[in-house]
Amino acid sequence: MNDQDMDLKARLVQVGVDLVTEEGTQPLTLREIARRAGVSHGAPRRHFPTHLDLLSAIARRGFEDLAARAAEATEGRTDPRERLTALARVYLDFARTRRGMFELMFRHDLLESGRLGLRDTSLPLFATLTELVAALRPDDQDPRILAGALWAGLHGVAQLWGWGSLRLATGTDDVEPLLRATLDAHLGPAAR
Amino acid sequence: MNDQDMDLKARLVQVGVDLVTEEGTQPLTLREIARRAGVSHGAPRRHFPTHLDLLSAIARRGFEDLAARAAEATEGRTDPRERLTALARVYLDFARTRRGMFELMFRHDLLESGRLGLRDTSLPLFATLTELVAALRPDDQDPRILAGALWAGLHGVAQLWGWGSLRLATGTDDVEPLLRATLDAHLGPAAR
DNA sequence: TTCAGCGCGTAGACACTGTCTACTCAATCC
DNA sequence: GGATTGAGTAGACAGTGTCTACGCGCTGAA
Asked: How far apart are CA A146 and CA A188, in angstroms?
């Protein structure tokens, strides 16, 4: 489907997704999006009351994309540990290959404005994470806490690695050891 | 020392620190800082070539503050596990009580511009983290990887908790369980 | 003592941003 | 067929960061 075939609302979001994917968050202004969609800068207002609303719609597409990749990466696998590893790798890959989108998705003002609807965007993914953790550590404490700590660990690796902090601090050029260390810490060392 | 006694360069940074502490990152514009420092909007340019340079100087003060708090919290303690717990708590406390500053310190554009000088700001703290981790897990793999994963875990908890994501996902109103889960995961369960 | 040089702050312009309001204009409906 | 309405246009407005020309007081050398 061509961009021109969509109604403006969908087109604006699509333009935004493309823009943030190709050029990052910096040029993601209301006026630039309108320009690339071929409409005047006032047009988006008919569909998104404010710039933040449009950005939220774009970020939501990022969460959908992430969820889709997670589903794709885990389908066919049954071993919980394997599924969890695949999930973690998808998360880190996403942060690395779609930097701009990842940055947008976790922008403070977006998250805090409540427009993103975390219930729809990240909670489903977190639920499967919790299930897998519960399956791997059945006798332990509240799996939501364990899953939360694991999620935080992965997210932290994704962020700090993206900024180069971890690369600098650990002196390695590969995220893989950090990924393995995080998973091992939370799930116990992997079986060989 | 009164603000008026400092030269403008130091005054601008101090005004910025106060401003971001009291009102967050949103009003932290070049012109607003100049206004509160009682000078014209062009004055900062004599001391900071660009807005980002001024923000970096402000953020650097945040890193210094964090390091000072970490030193204060660990002094007098000798047990590595205790020191590590105190360190972690300082990190989470800082993120919670100085939200605006924490947000500024880890702004993408600041970190990526290279102006912050991670070598001076975060590496010293990371070095002590690595030492403590090495002391607690002497026989294991590269302590820098382990310490990196732990740091990432703490940072992730700080971020996701601040955004409310973890509160929502885990269903608790207290970070403490997440802190303990993170430490236990990376260091083994605490001795009783 | 005078005067050039300079450090440092002022004032205004510029291009850009997000928001708001008045307007056009085609499609729809009674 | 004329009124209504939805959707996009065009321009104004206040705010932003940056840049440039200007001024003013201090310093140091002749």
From this structure: 12
Interatomic CA distance for residues A140 and A134, integer angstroms: 8
Better pLDDT: A120 or B157: B157
**Pseudo-torsion of CA A61, A63, A68, A70, nearest 10°?**
160
Instruction: Give the H or E element holding residue B139.
Output: none
Best of B131, B163, B175 to disrupt the A interface by mutation (most A CBs within 10 Å)? B163
Distance set, CA A94 to CA A35, A45, A130 (Å): 28, 31, 20
**Close Cβ partners of B32 (under 8 Å, ≥ 6 residues apart):** B19
What's the sign of the alpha-carbon dihedral A83, A84, A87, A92?
Answer: negative
Token representation of residue A22: 């190709």
CA B184 – CA B182 distance, rounded (Å): 6
Q: Indicate the residue type of B130.
A: T
Q: Cβ of residue A29 near strand C, that is under 7 Å?
A: yes
C-alpha torsion B115→B120→B123→B125, nearest 10: -120
pLDDT digits (tens, 9 = 90+) for A35-46: 999 999 999 999
Q: What is the 3-state secondary structure (H, E, C) of B60-109?
A: HHHHHHHHHHHHHHHCCCCCHHHHHHHHHHHHHHHHHHCHHHHHHHCCHH
| Joined tokens for residue A162 | 């993206």
Q: Which of B123, B126, B182 sits opposite A149 (nearest CB)?
A: B182
Reported as type and span, the H/E element at residue A155 is: helix A143-162
- In whole angstroms, how large is the CA radius of gyration of chain B? 19
Tell me: the pLDDT tens digits for A49-106? 999 999 999 999 999 999 999 999 999 999 999 999 999 999 999 999 999 999 999 9
